[in-house]
Design brief:
The chain is mostly helical. It has two domains: 1-62; 64-100. 79% of the residues lie in helices and 0% in strands. The chain has three helices and no strands. The protein has helices at residues 4-34, 39-60, 71-96. The longest helix is centred in the first third of the chain and has 31 residues, at 4-34. Heterooctamer of two A chains, two B chains, two C chains and two D chains. Keywords: Cell membrane, Membrane, Transmembrane, Transmembrane helix. One of its GO terms (cellular component) is cytochrome o ubiquinol oxidase complex. It comes from Buchnera aphidicola subsp. Tuberolachnus salignus. It is found in: Cell membrane.
Length: 100
């Protein structure tokens, strides 16, 4: 049964993760919109933010902490990275070929 203490502990991790992701997304958005830097630097910032957010999602929402030693958690994590990698490269390929 969930008590007040258990609910606070249960919600603490997702709230912290959400706040970190909100700060990262806001920083990246304003850096891209108002940053006076080259296209390459902006692309690197987006890619770095992408990978940092993947790890934050895994740590705060999927709880890949101490169970990381288990075989199936590793397999599912690798499969997730494979799918994300395919989606990411597919999106880049589509955006590159859009300029007619």
């Amino acid at each position: 049964m969930l008590t007040k203490k258990n609910i606070f502990f249960f919600l603490k991790s997702p709230v912290i993760g959400f706040l970190i992701l909100l700060i990262l997304t806001t920083f990246t958005f304003f850096f891209i919109i108002f940053g006076n830097c080259s296209y390459i630097v902006k692309k690197i910032i987006i890619i770095l933010n992408f990978f940092v957010q993947i790890f934050i999602h895994g740590y705060y929402f999927i709880y890949v902490k101490k169970e990381f030693k288990r075989f199936w958690n590793i397999i599912s994590l690798l499969f997730t990275f494979l799918i994300i990698f395919i989606i990411f490269l597919g999106s880049l390929w589509i955006m590159k070929n859009l300029n007619h």
